[in-house]
Amino acid sequence: MRLPCPLSLFPDPAPLVTLIYWRAFHYDRVLLSLFEVGESFITRIRAFIMLAVVLIVALMASPPVWGEGEGGLKGASFVPQWVPQAQFVGYYVALDKGIYKKYGIDLKIITGGPDNPPTSLLDNGTADFASVWLSTAINSRAHGQKLVNIAQIIRRTSQMLVARKTSGITTPQDLNGRKVSIWSGDSSIQGIAFIKKYNLTVKIVTQSPTVNLFMRGAVDAASAMLYNEYHTMLNSGLDPDELMKFSFYEHGVNFPEDGLYVSEEKFAADPALCCAFARASIEGWLYAFAHPDEAIDIVMKYMLRAHVPSNTAHQRWMLDKMRDLIIPDNDTADIGILRQEDYQRTAAELKATGLIETIPEFNSFYKNCVKK
Fold this sequence. Notes:
15 helices; alpha/beta; single chain; 5-stranded mixed beta sheet
């Protein structure tokens, strides 16, 4: 559990400092009358007391960077982008199978979503670690948030825009003047970059967690992840041949997505803990890929606890697609590595589309916690 800050009882420390100072002033008057010491001596005593007070208050006002867990473990918290689902199964497997504890971490997983954006929870200290898209993290760092990547889990994007061919949309330019639904907040960056890349003029509609607007024909194109919303469209009765997919990967807006992030301050305070979290998470993913049925059972258990509706078939589809994104061609050699070329391409695209003005320096942004 987190250690409380004693100064929390005093939201403004100034009255506390003033109180201690005047009590000290009272007692030095007593010293002066009883022992007839000089004013210079009292002045030195008072200065010493004030210095001690300032140091004590400063220490009290600085809460511990890391919490303490149970059984001598280090306490930490993690927030994914969304509610429990197979997109994050590796973390739930690592938690459920005791992998984090094996690495010395007493981990709590916080439910993500639009009300709990990971970058905000990192910034305000509610979460120690977060799963964040690379484009979002670069954008945040470029605008002053000091977060660092400690493992890049997904190597390429699976995001796309999907339209019905019957609407006459077969090229990006056909989207001009159309209604396009895009997720809000951090999740909008890649879609906006795609629109700016082709100089499109579209009416952007905020997309909810469902694809209902698209299914009802209220928008002409919708955002989708290959492992999630696209599969939902197929399960709703649409045939793949009916749909036009604008894969951001194929259109050069390839922003590798989920990576693991921590604040620069917390990494500096305990890099060993941060790297232990990254390695434990990767071990959780590899266990999930090796034991898919067990992994689905685990994540479905957490979904049930969070009252998230789903079904085993959809979660299995999601896990299969996540495997393709995390270890393409079953290549585990570079799992967790953020390649500099991927970083530079993503950052350059963000700059070209006007989303950032300067590109953060790679070595400050990325800390290699995977390769020893």
